[in-house]
Specification:
By secondary structure, this protein is of the alpha+beta class. It has eleven helices and 20 strands. The strands form six sheets. A six-stranded mixed β-sheet has the order 3-4-8-5-9-18, sandwiched between helices.
Length: 468
Amino acid sequence: MSPTLGNASSGRLRVGSARFRHALDAAHAREFVLLRDLIAIPSVRGTETAIHTRIAEELSGLGARIDLVAADPTLFEADPEYSPPTDVPPQRALNVVARWGDLPPSLLLFAHLDTEPVGVPERWETPPFEATERDGRVFGLGAPDDKAGVASILGAVQALDALGVRADVGILVAAVHGKQGGTLGTLPVIRSLVDLPAAVYCHPPETGAGLGQIKVGSRGIMSIELIVRGRTPAPVEMRTPASADPRDGVNAIGKAMKLAAALEEGLAVADDPDVRLSVNRIAGGRDRLAVPDRSRIEATLSFGRGTVQSWLAHLERLVAAASEADDWLRKHPARLRVIGLRANPASMEPDEPLAGWVEQAMAASGERPDRYHGHVASDIRFPIRCLGAPCVGFGALGGGFYGPNEWVEVDSMRRTTEVLVRTILDRHGFVGAPASVPTRKTLDRCRDRSYDARHGSSSRRPIGRHPI
């Protein structure tokens, strides 16, 4: 016999029945309209936008209590999960948080509402702020990144409402500013929550795998700057750099390359076998005929364990050790600092129930997803690291990320909404056997796995509610 779904207003309903399908079809029709509306509202990262108003209206129409959470990045500069935004809106970014009833939240559904810039308009084959449907795909700025995620979440809420169970599942919904490291949205929203059993981040995979992939982990990342000083020798002839003997100077670029090689050699034997260093830019000198007296290296480090601070300390030790063996660098120490985007890694235990619930829901929709740990700085890290709450990420098939001609597949959006609904129903026992809520032991394992034990237990405790 097929599993059944409780409904306060009309008895029992078989999952897969005409009524269940009707609720999903109606939700998909509505989410398609919403996606079209969201694409039409500019919400480029770092610019003023009114997109939160449209989302709040939709959620209010579904009976939600709305909180608009304003983000002030200065409040989070000391937060271990802080990443400095490169562009801050003229007015503080507003994030939408929706609640229903008095039940404590059992599951957070969230997606980001901001997009990348348009870039070169001539490279767009369709208007970036107009949803264009073609060959089963919707094109438009932010369609897969991540306005489709917002629309799918709201479609799932509508379907749960139509099935009469929305009030019984304790969901929490957030539409956040997630670009620029999450400091303008995801971080302040998650920090405003005191307790959260689990979360789902609805975002199409950037790999192009669609529902064939579930994010269960996020790699850490940090960009570093290394400033090295040298000495330009005095020229023999006035204002003629080429007349100087380069052996009388100290080449800052050469010293910088020596330190970069020391970093690569030191990281090759690091505790994390999957740590990756990439030296991406080097600059120095003011004249191609003169020995450079200053050099600047920019590099990126990605890692699966530890924290930004622990890896920064490790890099500083490697630079200090290499400098000690060099007379010039010992007397003229290089300066190392973190710049730009930074994010700590996060992951869940392999046996975490949340991933199983999602996989079961995807199997019912005909998908067999792989678990993916490779994305850098995914927003799934915030529930895991800030609250110790397990979190997974998945979404529809999309393409064109971070450039022109972004698109999302219409049928894949429909199935994403169905997976969200099935996951919620399964988790609360409306489908099949009742599912258990993650235990505190599970949450503690999740938290311990995502933090470096060398930082002590105090860094693993949730900070709790932040002033917003």
